Amino acid sequence: MLPCGTANETFGEDIAVIRTRLQWLLTIVGCVLLLTFPLFTSHYLTSLVNKLSITIIAVLGLQLVMGYCGLISFGQVAFMAIGAYSSAILTNTLGWSFWIALPLSGLIAGLVGLVGGAPSLRITGFYLALATLAIHQIVAWLMVHLPITGGVAGLHAPAPAIGNFAFNSEERMFYIIVPVMLLMTYFAKNLTRHRIGRAFVAIRDNDVAAEVMGINLYFYKLLAFFIACFYAGIAGSLLAHWTMVVHPEQFMVTNALYFVGMLIVGGLGSIAGVFFGTLFFSLLDEGVMLASPALAQVFPALGTHPAAALGVSAFGLVITLFLIFEPKGLAQRWEIFKTSYRVYPFAY
Predict the structure, then answer these.
(1) Which residues of the chain have pLDDT under 70?
(2) Contacts with 322 (C-beta within 8 Å, 6 or more apart), sequence order
(3) Angle ∠(120,125,129) on CA atoms, nearest 5
(4) pLDDT in tens, 242-293
(5) Are residues 98 and 146 located together in one domain of the fold?
(6) Which domain holds residue 138?
(7) Dihedral (CA of 163, 164, 166, 171) sign
(8) Structural domain tally of the chain?
């Protein structure tokens, strides 16, 4: 649906992601503001955007496999770990360039996902969720016990570099992390509009009907799992070189629960919902951290540092409220707003 008074004249205009002049203007202005963000903001905000962008990449992959294909997965963080360790080993141990290690880390995570996920995709629902949790536990054990991973000490991941120019600060890493995030978002958005994306949705809605229509269930489920793991591997590689260290405690199973929570709050089956959910929980975490000292003074029984307990409590409360009052997430609110804008001034 387009705004009143706007019509498409060609098939190319009809299938375009950005259709109107206003949308082009907002997109160009948004990209310019985003890419110049470190020039007029603080070091803290730049760091926050870097963290948000890495999380968005990982959650985008989870959205494709869970929101579009309907496969419940709690293993996204495990494949982030595989991507992070792969990138650290390729760059630090083998001396490869970061620019080669970045895509290879995604491919390695995707291939491991195929090996680990192939048997799991014969099952669905609750059993698939347990299988992906089992994959996470296996990866967590390997991170600690394999000699090549550095054990509990972890690994060092060198800063990316082009010649003698090293991306060794938040502001410099911003210009790697954010463009990669935008590129991965563009790919995910187009994938959902492609034949593959439509097959994912058909499997999610009714896999029996999809199979009757000729869709190879096992192939497309495996493809969705591979793409999700590839996204996780890319996010893990960026995380490793952003923090310049890879450690098992960076990839806890609780992070996987947060990723699923971001999809619930943002909205399953929506690329925009990934941004809404990630931003919502990031702001929630920052709010809890800021409110923690004041709450510790007002309620001494909470202890001197109640942020951790309050964060988990706030997460559970938010998920419960959204499941009851807004099960389709913030993306549904966004769609309602766009619909009201597009029919204006004909409100009826």
Answers:
(1) 1-5, 11-15, 120, 293-309, 344-348
(2) 264, 265, 329
(3) 60
(4) 999 999 888 988 888 899 999 999 999 899 999 999 999 888 888 777 777 6
(5) yes
(6) 19-251
(7) negative
(8) 2
